[in-house]
Amino acid sequence: DIAVQAIDLVKDYGEGDNAVHALRHVNVAFERGKFTAIMGPSGSGKSTLMHALSGLDTVTSGHVLFGGQDITQFNDKELTLLRRTNIGFVFQSFNLLPMFTAEQNILMPLTLAGKKPDTQWLQTLTTQLGIADRLQHRPSELSGGQQQRVAIARAFIAHPRVVFADEPTGALDTISSAEVMGMLRRFVKEMGQTVIMVTHDAAAASYADRALVFADGRIVADVANPTEEGMT
Ligand code: ADP
Ligand code: ADP
């Protein structure tokens, strides 16, 4: 059962001799309920792939099947709807709205979609993440680890088909990173959530079921049950 799939995906920035080949005919399928880490050096194409898979960016050629639909054929309106209803995002810099409480931030995807807050699910998520007693705090009143857990709750609140995480531990210390990754992994296992994470952090990647390694626009390794030692 495939959640999202890249077929012969090519992304060039610029044209002719000056073109940068960010993705060179990438083929990869992401199974439902699996946690995948995407690793590789800076500039190897990780973000470009993530942006293509999540409909944030157009591609030069090839296809992205999201739940079986080819989203490279979608217009802007359809892509916005896809992201709003089917995708959750977690960022390195948390991207919480500073004027809103943790609870308002978590519920934002539902608010934007005009849906009622699911208080039961909010309670479950925030209890599991250990932030249930922080819901009325603003982001500035929370530690980095707590802010990232708020961001994870926000990513999961609307039951998206896929959660994309872009360097989720990049701004966290070692202990907070381990806590956040442990919670993310538990969510994947308990809820069958599909998570695709870009990371430089071998320790973070060791929480995934699978690690893809990029180099120069290509997947050069595809590792099951990666270990920290194996990914360093
Ligand atoms: P990574 O996420 O692995 O660091 P990226 O996907 O960001 O790599 O970048 C892949 C290649 O595409 C790099 O050579 C980068 O410089 C280039 N690139 C990325 N975004 C742009 C852009 N908007 N314009 C031109 N080149 C870009
Ligand atoms: P975590 O393990 O989640 O990173 P910390 O151990 O860093 O949490 O923080 C402990 C407590 O201190 C938290 O409950 C939080 O409310 C508070 N705290 C941490 N950083 C800040 C901050 N920058 N501003 C306000 N309160 C903070």
From TrEMBL:
It comes from the Bacteria. GO terms for cellular component: membrane protein complex; plasma membrane. Keywords: ATP-binding, Nucleotide-binding, Transport. The chain holds residues 41 to 272 of 293 of the full protein. Residues 4-232 form the ABC transporter domain. The keyword Metal-binding does not apply. One of its GO terms (molecular function) is ATP binding. This is ATP-binding protein of ABC transporter system. It comes from Pseudoscardovia suis. The keyword Transport applies.
